[in-house]
Amino acid sequence: MRRSDKEIESNEEIDELLRRGTVCRLALHDDPWPYVLPLNYGFEVTSELGRRLYFHAAGSGRKIDLMRRNPRVAFVIDLDHELVHGETACGFTMSYRSVMGAGTVQFLEDAEDKRHGLQRLMEQYTNRQDWEFPSGNLEQVTVFALSIEQVSAKESGHKQHGE
User: Fold this and answer.
1) What is the number of domains present in the chain?
2) What's this model's pTM, rounded to 2 decimal places?
């Protein structure tokens, strides 16, 4: 990271940002341009699997096709946005925190794996872990996990430039 003074190095703080985020922008390989889309997600970190993001989608479509062709993706989650006012145009900045990284997508086929991923997704927004998912719904939904292989985080704009 070019500005090491803005880097968040603590794994605990990075995990907390991933837990608090609400939208993940996923970047997929397409030709001739990257394809980026915002998605809801669920986060989990375990000693066995490491950091994972869980997503759900319809069974077909552009993002599914692209990830099946190339499961290597990048992501960014940003939060805590606040405009910091200045006396001049160049004195304004934006306060925020962000987590960005890359990893590999795996489509979850087993009903229990899908249920687990959907539980993480629902927990992200409700803090509840006791949701029921009827087997008919599990058969229709596509659930995929992003195993995070690279991650970095930063915070910016908490002070005006020159302070």
Assistant:
1) 1
2) 0.88
